[in-house]
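Listing S7. Sequence submitted for prediction.
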Amino acid sequence: MKAVQVMGYGDVDQLEVVEQAIPEPKAGEVLVKVKACAINNTEIWMREGAYGTGKKSGWRPEGVQFPRTPGSDITGTIIKAGNEHNEKMIGKDVVLFPFTSSGEEGLEHISEDMSFIGSEYDGGYAEYVVWPAELCFDMPLPDFTESAVFSVSGMTAWHMVEQIQAKPGETIMVTGANGGVGSLNVQIASRVFGAKVIAIVGDLALEDQLKELGATHVLSYKSDQLAEEIIEANGGPIDSVLDVVGDALFATSLQVLKKGGKFCTSGSAGGQKTELDFRTMYLKHITLYGSVLGTRNEFKRMLEAIAEGKIKPVIDRTFPLEKARDAQVYFKKAGKLGKIVLLPEE
């Protein structure tokens, strides 16, 4: 089969198209013919070594073992089972829950042995992948490409909104609102949980599209008066912030939060380190949340909301699998709206 592998930490030249044997499913596993695999920051940061230092960057302390096939947002068709018990699944179109864990229900994502497909296991930048049968769920939509854009970014966004316990009528600011996680934060917070959303982007040309996703107001982080514009738009301080940017908007976020407000982050594309005046945090009674991924039950709730049409796929562009380098370069460009998807059969 054809696969794209990361050969080591570095730039996109570390991505190589290779030919390798189709993997064999073991007992409890199934073989999936990959139909679509969306791109996340996760596999780019894994390649760049941004999750650690030196030669030990990855989800696990020991770092990534190269070569590794990345890709975690995967849809496809089950074509083979590792044992008779799972043969009834052959022919099913599925979306893959993206990690294994021995953590008890509700705590799977924070278990010490959490292992991620595309990092600790070979992932979806390939024509075939093996995965535990119990972690293969029915696709929420009939289209493979549309169903592939939710797994990691959607579950991350859903978990963030549940963490802050979003309520109808509250105002939530979403940073990086045109990205994979951000655009889903906008939809989930507004369409599922009933909150008012202030979407923060760089290019206000995206305003109409973000309002279609559920944003009440769309503002640009390039404004010199952003904090004032946020408070004016809401008629006062806001309830919560869902952040994927990190340092670039951290001070503004704390400034516009009300007393008792909540700040939840799952990314740091705008800077991994920041300054925090503890007085701001305790005098305003602000709660800080670190967030990544989520639980199986949250994943199931998300799939139900997608199937019901409450959350819609937002796709910027697709690329053939062998153009993975071009796709990752394009992924990092500003001004996009939604996900980038690799298609093995294109």
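Caption to Listing S7: primary sequence and predicted structure tokens for the chain studied. The chain has a mean pLDDT of 93. Residues 197 and 215 are 5 Å apart (CA to CA).
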